[in-house]
Amino acid sequence: MRTFEQILDIAADRKGGREAVLDGISSPKSSDDLAAIPDDRWLSAMARGIFQAGISWTVVENKWPDIEDAFHGFDVARIAFMPEDWFYELIEDKRIVRSPPKVRAIQENAALIQDVAKEHGSFGRKIGDWPVDDFQGLLDWLQKDGACLGGGTGSYLLRSMGKESYILSKDVVARLIAEGVIDKAPTSKKAKAAVQGAFNTWKSQSGRSLTEISRVLAQSIG
User: Which of 161, 189, 211 is the last residue of a domain?
Assistant: First the structure.
């Protein structure tokens, strides 16, 4: 497995220098900054990812202001206790992506956020305090306890909210394969642990965030 600096050099050769590779990579938010994000914004981000799954993201983006209105600004308590008549109204509402399983998943995630906030003070507090050297554990938790938050949805959610993170895009997976970390897209517990271990090693070597490392790996291929 190459060092992070060696992979950065590969990306720099492809993109025209290190500055071109690293420019524009956002810095992750602190634990306290993540904790301060209102719970309704976490639910909104979850809903956006759930609605985008399997359809054009542009369609969801164009509908988004109306979706926010239809879900009353993603008021967590209101959605967690959604009455059945509102549920059926929503799945007939042309302002949203009319998918009963997706609407139900949003309701279930509202209940999750509410439960976590009662225990930790806010949903963002739990996310912010989750150690980055166990980022895979956080993804596993979202998939297990959340609704429709597995696969790439959980990773993109966390990245969009500012959590230090890696995303196993096609290009990142290709670099991990090239480095001998895995031999295909990771689906097993062992393979996912190997991915986390590689990122932890590169983080220790470089002092850079998982976010930066993930972006550099992607640019070393794509």
Answer: 161
Please tell me whether residues 69 and 123 are part of one structural domain: yes
What is the domain count for the chain? 2
pLDDT tens digits along 160-171: 999 999 999 999
pLDDT at 151: 87
Q: Which residues contact 14 (CB under 8 A, 6 or more apart)?
A: 219, 220
Question: Are 156 and 174 within one domain?
Answer: no
Cα angle 197, 199, 205; round to 5: 105
Give the helix/strand (H/E) hosting 117: helix 100-120
Max CA separation in the chain (angstroms): 58
pLDDT in tens, 143-154: 999 999 998 999
Q: Are residues 215 and 107 in the same domain?
A: no
Do residues 187 and 181 lie in contact, with contact meaning Cβ atoms separated by under 8 Å? no
For 91, what's the count of Cα atoms within 13 Å in the CB-facing half-sphere? 15
* List of residues 6+ apart from 17 with CB closer than 8 A: none
Task: Give the orientation angle of helix 210-219 with respect to helix 4-15, to 10 degrees.
Answer: 50
- CA 17 to chain centroid, in Å, comes to 28
Short-list 76, 81, 100, 78, CA closest to 89: 100
